[in-house]
Amino acid sequence: MRAHQTPEKRAGSRRGWTLFELVVVILLVAVGILIATVSVYRGKAAADELACQDNMRAIHSALGIYFTKNHRNYPADQAAFEAFLQDRAYFTEELRCPRDATRSLHYQYSRSATNPGPEGITITCPVAGSGHGSL
């Protein structure tokens, strides 16, 4: 004698997902994508900051060579500093902050009147609010 089968058994043992299960899965995937996006954005911001600081270090090092070649003098003002930045004897390309979308801002240069040596030179990131600081 054959046992009585329920409608579920007759249709097969395959069961579909409920709406609640689908919503939970979609939410979990969305949270995973959000976490990955935030991580990538933070990584990009950290890489931009590192590149900007590296540019400022390179400029500071090249100023040491400039100082030696120019009879122990540093650039007198921002205009002379910008001319120095464009000199291909020191740099293969003009250094810019990665956050400078327009590629029109120059690193800012200042010299201390009381400290004429390399410690008295400050190079500052030109992008307002970048948080890259100065060297």
Structural class: mainly alpha
Low-confidence stretches: none
Along the chain, the helix and strand elements come as: HHHEE
Number of strands: 2
CA-based gyration radius: 30 Å
Largest sheet data = 2 strands, antiparallel
Give the number of domains. Answer: 1
Q: Give the proportion of residues in helices.
A: 40-55%
Q: What would the principal axes of the Cα set say about the shape? A: rod-shaped
Largest sheet, order of strands side by side? 1-2
Average of the residue pLDDT scores:
86
Compute the number of helices.
3
Provide an overview of this structure.
The protein has 135 residues and is mainly α. The chain has one domain (19-124). Helices cover 48% and strands 6% of the residues. The chain has helices at 7-11, 19-69, 78-86; strands at residues 108-111, 121-124. Strands 1-2 form a two-stranded antiparallel sheet. The N and C termini lie far apart (90 Å). The mean pLDDT is 86.
Summed up, what is this model?
The protein is mainly α and 135 residues long. It has helices spanning 7-11, 19-69, 78-86, and strands at residues 108-111, 121-124.
Mind sketching the topology for me?
Elements: H1 7-11, H2 19-69, H3 78-86, E1 108-111, E2 121-124
Antiparallel strand pairs: 1-2
Features:
135 residues; mainly alpha; two-stranded antiparallel sheet; rod-shaped
